[in-house]
Amino acid sequence: MEVIIRDNPEDCAQIVANVVARYLDNKDKPVLGLATGSTPERMYKKLIELNRAGRISFKKTTSFNLDEYVGLPPDHPQSYHAYMKEKLFDHIDIPFGNTNIPDGNAADLREECLQYEKRIRETGGIDLQVLGIGSNGHIGFNEPIGSLSSRTWIKILTRNTLRDNARFFEDESQVPRHVITMGIGTILEAEHCLILACGHHKSEAVQAMIEGPITSQCPASALQFHKRATAVLDVDAACLLRLKEHYRWVEENHLDWQRYDLPNRFEK
Prior knowledge:
The protein is α/β, with parallel strands linked by helices. It has a single domain (2-260), classed as Rossmann fold. 30% of the residues lie in helices and 16% in strands. It contains eight helices and ten strands. The protein has helices spanning 9-26, 41-52, 80-87, 109-122, 159-165, 184-187, 203-211, 244-252, and strands at 2-6, 31-34, 62-65, 67-69, 99-100, 128-131, 153-156, 178-181, 192-197, 229-234. Helix 7 links the parallel strand 9 and strand 10 (229-234). Helix 1 (9-26) crosses helix 2 (41-52). The longest helix has 18 residues, at 9-26. The two termini are 30 Å apart.
């Protein structure tokens, strides 16, 4: 796994925005996998700035979000439909019909999961999948002890995740217990997985993901199997990594085309 460490969340967001922009710049019809939560918000702000400045365009982009709560209407302020509109879609030039988020209110949730997988396949697959990581090591909403080869499906959230997400609701009892989420098998089929993690509270999960064994107890550790996974971390999230100096050495010796911090057309 490629590991990029920066001093603060702002610098991490810039790196991730650079990677997304590079795919928009180099792919004719890019397909992005997108994440929600507090972690990617800085990255979305930077992408909006680049788009408004005319340096990148989403006009030919198709997007697939990782997940959605079951039972929340799309206009509920804590639904991921509402989040994506507020944080990104309403501020860029992506055609609304090109955006895909699981329907947590579908009459047949199982069929919705199957159709979501079908839509991803019909685009040719996801080019770049942006991910966060939960404090218990989940990616998407693939909780510990689940399958490491799962497809998009209905999952039950753990008590740990309910507590973590309660800050977005009036109290923990308001957090839906069920979600639709891309499975780990679906995530691993993306051409490139890009994981963003910031803060000391993510450090144990980050260490387990990168340097621990591959185990369903840390679902994100399955990314060690991926042909191209990049973790972008601030120093707090990286604080428990044993091989920090090695990761810095590797980045210092990247060839120019491997680097994410060199000027590109979209950084004019």
